[in-house]
Structures are given as structure tokens and as C-alpha cells.
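[[Encoded backbone]]
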Amino acid sequence: MQEQHETTSWRNWLAVGVLGVGSFAIVTTELAPIGILSSIANDLGENEAKVGLIVTGYAWIAAVAALLSATMLGRIPRKPLLGSLMLVLALSSAAAAVSTTFPALFGARIIGAIAHGAFWAMIGTLGAQIVPARYVGVATSIIFGGVSAASVLGVPLAGMIGHHEGWKTAFGVIAVLSFLTAAAIMFSVPRVSAAAPVGRQALFAIVRNPTFVRIYGATACAITAHFAAFTYIEPLLAEGLRIEPNALYTLLLAFGLAGLLGNVMTGVFVDRYLKPLVLGSLALMAICLAGLGALGANADLIAVGILLMGWGIGVAAVFVGFQTWILRTAGDAALPASAIYVAIFNAAIGTGALLGAVVISFTELAGLVVIAAIALAGSIVPVLLLSAPAVTLAPAE
């Protein structure tokens, strides 16, 4: 790890911002089909359940890639590695944009998924390498704020582009964003010493640690529950609550903007109040999802909007909060701990999408979000059993 100085240049903070854009790009790539699932299915002549595999399959492949990258790519310098991985992601989205068959689209997605898992696992520890220790919480909030921003804002934006211009255009826009991010990484990210490859013993040591087991368990439960509901947010609003298309995308945009607000709030409070922040956010998500499940057809738009915004704020804080908790707890074992976290997170995305499909096969969409709310409430239990990790706070100016 490179020496950390008391002051950090503007270029280092620019790199942190670029990595945040990078995490936004990769997770938007992963989740974009959620907002355009119907369009893809209709255009390719497939049913929505089959097309949903491009979310589930992508997530599971990314999970495996995250673990393999920690053991195989550790010695490669971070700057060229991250730039190359982002370029592969860009090419994957470009290939998806010109696909005319489901196998071609699925193949393009698989290539991107491999790069996705490796990229996310590697950026997990980079913030701690390019800013002083007392600013790691802020840097992590910025870098992984892109993850939550993609979930709550990238999906509705991709959906709006797909609705007005077609799903291929949506993938094309993501490809352009990824190309630009790859170039920005090569300009802004400083040279950082590569770490030694992570051995299997290091991975086993992490999963045998009770603290990590609880964090990973809470993550798996919360993220699976969130994506079981979020994967079907479009039909929930359109079919379950009878929201008109124009109002639907406005509501999704409000959900996204609330998520950005959640990112800002997390950056302010994460260093001093990590555990209360995570607990409160999980509770907020559970309450809002239960509320959405209780609403009937032709529900009041203001009520729907308030509940969606609460959900967006909560999930943004949860995404960043769990990642920050892992990095603070891991110390020098940050790379293997982060790789396992990324693998669990992505596996939970795929599992949530799949379980959501199973649940709605025997209940209504409203029932799905209520079940997700119950699971989110259950994820509070392992967090309650954890002690908040120590942190070095920035001194007052």
C-alpha cells in the first residue's frame, strides 16, 4: 500500500470521484434490464422470465469473478487493471446494443459480468490506498455511492431511455459512459502498488470469523429481499398499483433522487454513526416496502412517492454502510473480505431476482413486497449482535 500523507491532492479526490462513476456504470450495466425487461422480451420474442436470466445469470457470474479476481489478479497494478476491466464492460454493453437474438445478448452480458466482478472487488480497497485513513469513510461513501446510485437512479434512467428510444439505445448510452470512465480512470487514478494474491487460507480465515459471518448474513438477507422486490418494481407500479407510464417513470426518478440524498446523508453520518445508520436504514426499507404492499390499485401518487423515496434513501445507506463496515473491520485483510462481500452481494442480486419470480408465481406483487419487508426486518437481527467497528475520525478544522 502506498504511503498516505496528511494531505491529499485534488487529483486523488478526482480519482475517488471517477471510481464512484465507475461503480455507477458497472452496476447500471448489471441492473439496466430491470427497467427495460418488457421491451427486450417483446423485441426478441421471449417471455420476461427467460429474459430475466440476463440479470440473474450476470449477477451469479459476477459473484464468481469477484472471488477469482482476488486470488488471480492481486499482483496486477490497479490503474491498468481497472482501466482494462472498464473497457471490457464498455465493449460488453456495445455488443448488447447490437444484439438481435437472446443468445447473442446473453453472451455479451456474460463477458461484462466477468469484468464486473473483478472491477468491483478491486475498487473495494482502493479508497484506503489513495486518501488518508481519517478520510476512508468519506472516500468509501463516494466510491460505493455509485453502487446505490445505480440501483436507485441508473435503473429508472435506463428505463426512461428504453421507453422513449428503445432498449438498444439504453445499452448504447451505458457503453459510452463506460468508455469515458475507462479513459478517466487512466488519467486520474494514481499508481498504486499491487497487493500479493489472496490465498485460499485468507478467504477461509474471513469466513470463519463470526463478525464477518454476521455482516455477510445481514448483507445476503437484505440485498436478496431488496432485489426480490426491486426487480419487479415496474410491474408493481404499473400492474399492481395501476400507475400510468408517465407518472411511473416520474416516481422511479423520485426514487432515484432520494437515493442520491441517501448517499449524501450516509457520507455525513457514516463515520460517527455507522451501526445506527445501518439499523435505521434497514427498518426504513422494511416499513416502506410493507406500506407499498398495503396500498391498493389506483393508490394516491403522493403516498406512493413518499414510500418509494423512503425505500430509496434506506437502500442507498445500506449499500454504503455494509461496505464501509467490511473495510473497517477487515484492516489488512480488506481485499479478501471485500471480494467475499462483492461475491455475496452479486449472488444476492441474482437470487433475489429469481426468488421474486418464484414468489409472484403463487402470490400477487403486493404479497412479494410484504414478504421482502419481513425479510428486511429479519436482517436487523445479525446487525444488532455486532459491535460497531473502530474508526479514525477527521479532526475538526
In short: The two ends are 27 Å apart (CA to CA). Residues 160 and 246 are 9 Å apart (CA to CA). The chain has a mean pLDDT of 83. Residues 10-384 form a domain with the Growth Hormone; Chain: A; fold (CATH 1.20.1250.20).
